[in-house]
Specification:
- The complex is a heterodimer of chains A (about 140) and B (about 375).
- Helices cover about 5% and strands about 40% of the residues of chain A.
- By secondary structure, chain A is mainly beta.
- Chain A has two domains: about 50 residues, no CATH class; about 80 residues, OB fold (Dihydrolipoamide Acetyltransferase, E2P), CATH 2.40.50.
- Chain A is globular and about 45 Å long.
- Chain B folds into two domains: about 130 residues, 3-Layer(aba) Sandwich (Peroxisomal Thiolase, Chain A, domain 1), CATH 3.40.47; about 220 residues, Peroxisomal Thiolase, Chain A, domain 1, CATH 3.40.47.10.
- Chain B is α/β, with parallel strands linked by helices and about 375 residues long.
- Chain B is globular and about 55 Å long.
- The model of chain B has no long low-confidence stretch (mean pLDDT about 95).
- In chain B, a hairpin with a 2-residue loop joins strand 5 and strand 6.
- Classes of the chains: A mainly beta (about 140), B alpha/beta (about 375).
- At the A-B interface, strand 4, strand 5, strand 6 and strand 8 of A face helix 4, helix 5 and strand 5 of B.
């Protein structure tokens, strides 16, 4: 599954606010921030809730499931480090909790991807990070 | 006149696009583009007392307007950076008019220019896109337009050929613009569909060609403009909207911030989109034109493909669209690419567009778009009564 493991590509540069997301991912846990004040689920991680500007946010385990809102099969990557992986699939995942995140799809042939497809998170090693990528939802999920 | 004119464009300057520059500086190209625009306006250098510049002046990361003003030897009473991506050019025009109407200054030069040297540094970005998009293999602008396009195709069953038609029309129009990078290089729908897929569903020829160039306009009061060399082109309405930065955060993938921006501009001008002599629509990708046609209300959401098939988009057609070739035909000189849509509208409304002149051109709707369908500015421009 780690078709991307050997790539020399730019990894995330965590900040104080975002570090818990990447730390949890390295333990195989998919977490999102949730606003203590208005209950909104938040992605990407922020210092304040984008709905109500509350600074009181907590990290919570999330389902790790979502739906492909759109996707693109990348033949000519914008960064040369990704050329060895092309063609690969980048997708917008509408998470069950509400927010949308951009990620990579794995364990599926590019010409089988469909808008509306249900997917679940898979942690894939890329460099020294475990990145939350997504694969078609299996029956047990 | 449908509305009071709060400002007018009196001069334009434009550099011929080139694929590569050799030893050029951004400041140098800005100076040349400004010179051409101020000369075209028939003004003296010292009459320029307002300056609007883009954020990517290569030689300095901070204090950009002061650096440019010093380089030009002017002492403006209003100086600012306009940082709206491809909407910067259009965004400069209304800000210049507003600054004049506010009594801050009398003559503003708005300029964008870029170099394309062989050794360009990679961006040192530390923003959310760098942290949450780039690590997943999503670098560069192409993906941020491929995703809305795929969504449009899934939602409305729009086809690759319908999108390709937009690029083919741009190439057709470029055949009447000797400055265009694709002058002498038309492309049919079949040619576009045969070009390689870069990021599905986007084909290579549906993506602008990066070039170096420069575009500028001079804005003065309507009263001042009447005493100058060319017939003034009036700003009749403007609208702006910024909704997000990363494509994952877009409120919609099939309708953008240009919708409210165009509504505001058209309402201020008191005219409708279908009354335009020229649609000068920002076209970094074919999907951008498709969304803009729909967001302008020229057809229903999802209906651009049929609309394009039913209309003719050349200077002699029923809906002239991007008569200079658009950026898809002219080339995209970075942020100056957005300003080509303003410059072409001025040419048409001055009745100075030569072989591609639209008969009796009276009104133009100009759009600018930045980032990932994020930043939008719309202008309604009108010919002098």
């Amino acid at each position: 599954m780690s078709e991307f493991e050997s790539l020399a590509v730019p990894g995330p540069i965590p900040t104080r606010v975002t570090r818990p997301f990447w730390d949890a991912a390295s333990e195989g846990r998919f977490t999102l921030q949730r606003c203590d004040t208005c209950g909104a689920w938040i992605f990407y991680p922020r210092s304040h809730c984008p709905q109500c500007w509350s600074p009181r946010l907590s990290w919570q385990e999330a389902s790790g499931r979502g739906m492909v809102k759109s996707f693109s099969v990348i033949y000519r990557p914008g960064h040369p480090g990704w050329a060895a992986a092309a063609p690969y699939v980048v997708a917008l995942i509408e998470l069950e909790e509400g927010p949308t995140m951009l990620s990579t799809l794995v364990d599926i042939a590019p010409d089988s991807v469909k808008v509306g497809m249900r997917v679940a998170v898979r942690f894939v090693p890329v460099g020294k990070f475990a990145l939350p990528m997504f694969a078609p939802l299996s029956r047990s999920e | 006149m449908a509305a009071r004119s709060p400002g007018a464009i009196a001069g334009i300057g434009e550099l011929k696009p080139v694929r590569r520059t050799q030893g050029a500086t951004t400041l140098g190209l800005i100076a040349e583009t400004v010179r051409l625009a101020v000369e075209d306006a028939g003004l003296d250098k010292d009459a320029i007392d307002g300056l609007l510049v883009g954020p990517q002046v290569g030689e300095t990361p901070q204090h950009v307007p002061a650096t440019v003003a010093e380089y030009l030897g002017i002492q403006p009473r209003m100086a600012n950076v306009v940082d709206l991506g491809g909407a910067s050019g259009a965004g400069m025009v209304w800000r210049a008019a507003a600054a004049i109407a506010a009594g801050m200054c009398d003559a503003v030069v708005c300029v964008l220019a870029n170099t394309r040297e062989d050794e360009a540094p990679r961006s040192p970005n530390r923003n959310p896109i760098r942290e949450f998009d780039v690590p997943f293999g999503a670098s560069g602008a192409n993906i941020s337009y491929a995703l809305p396009m795929q969504r449009h195709m899934a939602k409305y069953e729009s086809t690759p050929a319908q999108f390709a038609r937009i690029a083919a029309a741009a190439r057709d129009n470029a055949q009447l613009n000797p400055l265009a990078i694709f002058y002498g290089h038309p492309a049919s729908v079949d040619d576009i569909l045969a070009s390689p897929i870069i990021a599905s569903p986007l084909h290579l020829y549906e993506i602008v060609m990066p070039v170096a160039g420069g575009e500028a306009v001079v804005v003065v009061s309507a009263e001042r403009a009447r005493g100058l060399k060319h017939p003034p082109v009036h700003l009749l309405g403007a609208g702006e909207k910024v909704t997000h930065r990363a494509i994952s955060q877009a409120p919609s993938l099939t309708s953008g911030p240009l919708k409210p921006a165009m509504q505001q501009a058209l309402a201020r001008a008191g005219v409708g989109a279908s009354a335009m002599s020229l649609l000068s629509f920002y076209d970094c990708y074919t999907i951008m034109v498709a969304m803009t046609i729909e967001d302008a209300g020229l057809c229903a959401a999802g209906g651009f493909g049929r609309w394009i098939e039913e209309h003719s988009l050349g200077h002699d057609g029923d809906f002239p669209l991007n008569t200079h070739g658009g950026q898809l035909g002219f080339g995209q000189p970075d942020l100056a690419g957005g300003m080509t849509h303003v410059v072409e509208a001025v040419r048409q409304l001055r009745h100075d567009a030569g072989a591609r002149q639209i008969r009796n051109a009276q009104l133009a709707l100009v759009t600018g778009n930045g980032a990932t369908v994020s930043e939008a500015t719309a202008l309604v421009l009108g010919a002098d009564a």
